[in-house]
Design a protein that fits this description.
With about 140 residues, the protein is mainly alpha-helical. Helices cover about 35% and strands about 0% of the residues. It is built from four helices and no strands.
Amino acid sequence: MQLTREQFELIAPLLPRQRGNVRLDNFEVVNAILYVAANGCKWRALPSHYGPWHSIYTRMSRWAKAGVLDAVFERLQRQRLMQVRIEAVSLDSTIMKVHPDGTGAPKKTAPRPSAKVGAGGAPNFIWLPRVPATL
């Protein structure tokens, strides 16, 4: 899933204009995003010839929040430049332990009687210090 320069020129008007001293061209960034989408790899596993993975991820994140990527992928589909087929859907199965109070469980408000007999009453023994008789 790589675009040629001619294909890229059809979607270039949808991308934000690059300003200032930019190391990566939008063409390279779009191809890097397509590589990650096609191979399902982590951003850190992006081949180095695409450029620094963090720079590409940052730009992709900004474009996604601004709705640019939606427009780009729609144009790619409508002009049949790229056929995207979703074959599998995966959900993140990260598990995090949560304190019981954070799960919405009802809070215990009434004191619970102890199972030990006499736990709430007088002590079962009395400790008295013994003074030796030989003083």
